[in-house]
Design a protein that fits this description.
468 residues; alpha+beta; Beta Polymerase, domain 2; Hydrophobic Seed Protein; 7-stranded mixed sheet; two-stranded antiparallel sheet; 15 strands; binds cytidine-5'-triphosphate
Length: 468
């Protein structure tokens, strides 16, 4: 791997170094920003380690940078300086040790080297000096540069110590491997297996952050396979671990749903950056283990797995501290509807069925179609091509109907209020029934999606029911 030249041109960092000189302090830019600089990636937060007080250097720097805002966190010994275009985090060099039963470390002042020691991975322990006489000097005590070139994630110390200090680092190792396409060093990987149970002391929110970063990586399956391989998966997401394996009856096995799902996830990741579409891909078959049945004639069946899966999602999102809002509703909707397009192409495609799908999916129809394309993972290339072609036919039909009938964000043209006024009704069940009947008539193509014909149809129905 070719690394980028670590020249740092940033004027704000020059200023920090000059200020540190004046105060007779050693200071370094360290961690993720240095890693990303060398890898040619963009990174927002700049972490600065000061041998001495990080807070006093931050205060002095804030006084010199125009429009700077200073926040001091005395308890943590850290300070942040923020301007319109830069965010600098200052901290004194620290030595840390953790007790076995707690995430709260005992922190003492330390040297730069001690500070680098306590960091998670060699590629995250690199520091660049900012003092004027050594400006730009790279300090790499653990061979982080070599590991970057070899694409290796490895802890600077004995991995059992590094992971025991902060078990979230096991997830971080897997996340970096997935984001950067690196391998985890075998000793580091073994230590994750040994320490996996310790993930239980980490909050679900921090785990969810790492999972989202895995999900947003170019090939998210890498992370999920590593989570499985290391034994972390059943601890953090048991419902997904349950998709693993193939059962056989009378010599007939079913598809391995775990592998299939990860293929679908990667397929979606190739065409979309949308985090929640990717989650929908991961969860689309989550109901399969619960719905699995053997039928002597049909073989393996997974009836209603879409519906069962959609129903499982609120509990999963709650347990994993994923957002329980419109993002979750979107995932539920996609999981629920994911079999509809494929069922459509298996039957003859009626306008009415397409209109109903458009109505139910609304603005998410394009995402749903992306998920359905991604869901075709058969090894039979001819079959795959046939399915994609048929989906194209469905999509074309959707576009035609949408142009004509504007179903996607369809609001029934006669509202409940108006029905009550026209028929002199109080709010009651009949109003709802009439509204649904008008909606169905539009979706079934009996009347166009327009006000006058809808009103006429309503009055006709009302007469038939003896309401007029
Ligand atoms: N760090 C660590 N152990 C952790 C978290 C962070 O040792 N559990 C150290 C690493 O040196 C890391 C630095 O703190 O580079 C900054 O952490 P953070 O901002 O959380 O992550 P980054 O490495 O910057 O990566 P990203 O921004 O992608 O999360």
């Amino acid at each position: 791997m070719k690394l980028v030249d670590p020249k740092i041109q940033n004027p704000a960092l020059r200023l920090v170094g000059a200020q540190a000189d004046k105060m007779n302090l050693e200071c370094y830019v360290i961690g993720g920003w240095v890693r990303d600089l060398l890898l040619g990636r963009h990174s927002e937060d700049i972490d600065i380690v000061v041998v001495g007080s990080g807070i006093s250097l931050a205060e002095a720097v804030a006084g010199q940078l125009r429009g700077a805002h200073l926040s001091v966190f005395k308890t943590y010994g850290t300070a942040q300086v923020k301007t319109r275009d830069i965010e600098l985090e200052f901290v004194g060099a620290r030595r840390e040790s953790y007790r076995h039963d707690s995430r709260n470390p005992i922190v003492e002042d330390g040297t730069l080297e001690e500070d680098q020691n306590r960091r998670d991975f060699t590629i995250n322990a690199l520091a660049i000096c900012l003092n004027s006489d050594r400006y730009g000097e790279l300090l790499d005590p653990f061979g982080g540069i070599q590991d970057m070139a070899d694409k290796i994630i490895r802890t600077p110390l004995d991995p059992d110590i590094t992971f025991s200090d902060d078990p979230l680092r096991m997830m971080r190792a897997i996340r970096f491997a997935t984001q950067l396409g690196f391998d985890i060093h075998p000793d580091t990987l073994d230590a994750i297996r040994r320490n996996a149970e310790r993930i239980n002391i980490i909050t679900k929110e921090r785990i969810a952050d790492e999972l989202n970063k895995i999900m947003l990586s170019p090939k998210p399956s890498i992370g999920w396979y590593l989570l499985d391989e290391t034994g972390l998966l059943p601890l953090i997401f048991p419902e997904f671990a349950a998709l693993k394996g193939i059962e056989t009856v009378e010599g007939r096995g079913h598809k391995d749903v775990f592998r299939h799902t990860l293929q679908v996830l990667d397929n979606v990741a190739e065409v979309s950056d949308k985090l929640w579409l990717r989650w929908a891909a991961l969860l689309h078959d989550i109901g399969k283990p619960k719905s699995k049945a053997w039928d002597n004639e049909a073989g393996w069946t997974f009836r209603n797995h879409n519906y069962i899966g959609a129903k499982m999602i609120p509990r999963i999102f709650k347990a994993m501290k994923l957002p329980q809002n419109e993002k979750m509703d979107y995932v539920i909707k996609l999981v629920d509807l994911h079999m509809r397009p494929i069922n459509l192409i298996e039957d003859t495609v009626t306008d009415s069925a397409v209109r109903r799908l458009l109505f139910e999916a609304g603005d998410d129809i394009d995402d749903l179609m992306q998920l359905c394309h991604a869901d075709i993972t058969s090894r039979n290339q001819q079959k795959v091509e046939r399915f994609h072609r048929n989906f194209e036919l469905v999509s074309r039909k959707m576009r035609e109907l949408e142009e004509r009938d504007r179903i996607r964000n369809f609001q029934p043209p006669v509202k409940g209020e108006e029905i009550m006024q026209l028929l002199h009704l109080e709010p009651c069940a009949i109003v709802g029934e009439l509204k649904t009947a008008v909606k169905d008539a539009i979706l079934d193509g009996i009347i166009p999606n327009e006000y006058e014909p809808a009103k006429e149809y309503l009055l006709k129905l009302a007469k038939e029911k003896g309401l007029l």
